[in-house]
Amino acid sequence: MALRARRPFRPGLVLALLTLVGAVVRLGGLTAQSFWLDEYLWTQNSVGSVGDIFRLADGYPPLFGLIVHGLMQAGLGSDWWLRLPSAIAGILTVPLTYAVARRVGGRAPALAATALMAVNPMAIWYSQECGAYALFMLAALSSTYCFLRLLGGGSRRHAWGYAIAVCLGFGLHYYFAFVVAAQALVALWDAASHPERRRLWLGMGVAAFVGFLVWGQAFLYDVASQSAEDSQRATSVLALPYTVLTFVGGFSLGPPLRQLHHAVYSDGPLWAVLAPYSSVTVCAVGLTAVLALAACGRRLTPARLLTALLVLLPVLGAWAASLALVGYRPRYAVAALPLAAIWCASALGTRLRPVAGVLLIALASLQLFALRQIDDAEYAREDTRAAAAYVGAHDPSATVVLVGDAADAFGRYAGTARTVVILPNEANDPTLLRERVDTALKDRHEVWLLAARPWTTDRHDHVRALLEARYAAREEVHFAGVSLRRYVDAPILAAREEASPARP
Predict the structure, then answer these.
(1) Where does the pLDDT of residue 235 fall: very low under 50, low under 70, confident under 90, or very high at 90 and above?
(2) Nearest alpha-carbon partner for 21 in 90, 82, 79, 84
(3) Are 388 and 417 in contact (CB under 8 A)?
(4) What DSSP state is assigned to residue 346?
(5) DSSP readout, 52-101?
(6) Beta strands across the sheet bearing 472-479
(7) Which of 25, 335, 382, 470 has the fewest Cβ atoms nearer than 10 Å?
(8) Is the pLDDT of residue 495 over 70?
């Protein structure tokens, strides 16, 4: 009996399928959640002129603000359009991960890393946000791909590609400096053993410096404002294992972000928040650590050294910067995310390949579990959009008091409702708060209180207590991360109840 001919394996077909999966999960849920505070601020900060955006001291380079500005000027200011650049960047990250990983560790590890990135909850989260982080990650991968091609004797177009990617990266986030630092260390190593390429690396260094200078003026505006804003934030060693957890499951695996923030702000027992999620947290961190250690069994080539540095420097650099300048947030290290997937997947190229395969499947399963609950109320962004729809359905001209940093995004969906923002200095000063409420709510017989992360503004509930002393509570509803209370003058409430038909 004739043997059936084996069909050749087609990695291109698998890559196309993984890219399609990545596109579906990113575009499919692009507007499932409402804008949260940072997205709202991007839109608010981008309504001014181009010159205003360059001079804005918001802690970010101007490039993403210019993108938002252009979309809004073109009349594309809906949630879907403003998130689309991030979604496109997230989709492009999937095949680019394969291109980088293929040059680092071979075909099988490259496909494994690409599969991880296609469904990674953290990558998807920032692909569905009006923010700079998905584009920041894409710029880091693009510069790395061009750098690897130059290591292998690439052409002038790779040099130009690297220069453009670096310029765009610095325009998206100042922490792109840690990506360039990792590449510079490998360039120095390569120049030591290949003197003929020293001029090349010198030219790339000059290009990187020029790319930074393009955005240098904005950097001067931002340094002082950010150091002043975050100077009181405590830095913890727990930031590093938490980054590993978010790299595996985003913000939908382990303790919810709001619970962690509440514990930090209130100086409460952190273990009480961590304990219910300790098993899944240990599993995610443990799997990643074992895979990372197993990958160390491969020979250290310049490409693999670059991969390791592009994981370590963005994470440790952001954490070290938090000691002196700005508070630590895992999203500042998001440039390392695809390189971390590539490093862990490269364990398939060691003698532990069968074990590594099982561990990678387990890691992907954790990611899919986290992805399934990414829109659950426990983990989703604060749903001010649903709160605004609820208020609008009851009283389009309602007066809504906003408490907590995340409550400000309500203004994007408020319609004709009148909003009253309570600032931290007002909430913490009884006299100032009373004056503010007296002025804002004068002759108002009905008022709504919307609280989203209220501990950032009013951890002792002074605003709620003051409203309850003046009004009678009518109802209370809850959405993802948002509580909404309705208050009515006591005499009016009594009259309404008297006029309503008696219940049997």
Answers:
(1) low
(2) 90
(3) yes
(4) G
(5) HHHH--SSS-SHHHHHHHHHHHTT--SHHHHHHHHHHHHHHHHHHHHHHH
(6) 418-421, 399-403, 446-451, 482-488, 472-479
(7) 470
(8) no
Strand runs labelled E in 306-439 = 399-403, 418-421
Place of tokens 């120095």: 188
Determine the residue type at 319: W
Cα gap 141→116, rounded to integer Å: 15
- pTM reported for the whole predicted model: 0.92
Per the CB < 8 A criterion, the answer to whether 165 and 142 are in contact is: yes
Handedness of CA 230, 407, 36, 283 (dihedral sign): positive
Q: Does residue 284 contact residue 85 with C-beta atoms inside 8 Å?
A: no
Residue among 214, 229, 128, 132 at smallest CA distance from 175: 132
The yes-or-no verdict on residue 226 having pLDDT over 80 is no
Give residue 135's region: left, alpha or beta (phi > 0; psi -120 to 50): alpha
- Cβ-contact 101, 347 below 8 angstroms: no
Q: What is the three-class DSSP state of 476?
A: strand
pLDDT confidence tier of residue 224, bands split at 50, 70 and 90: low
Question: Of 166, 155, 147, whose CA–CA distance to 209 is shortest?
Answer: 166
Residue 500 DSSP label = S
Residue 354 tokens read as 């069968």
DSSP string, 263-280: HHHHT--HHHHHGGGHHH
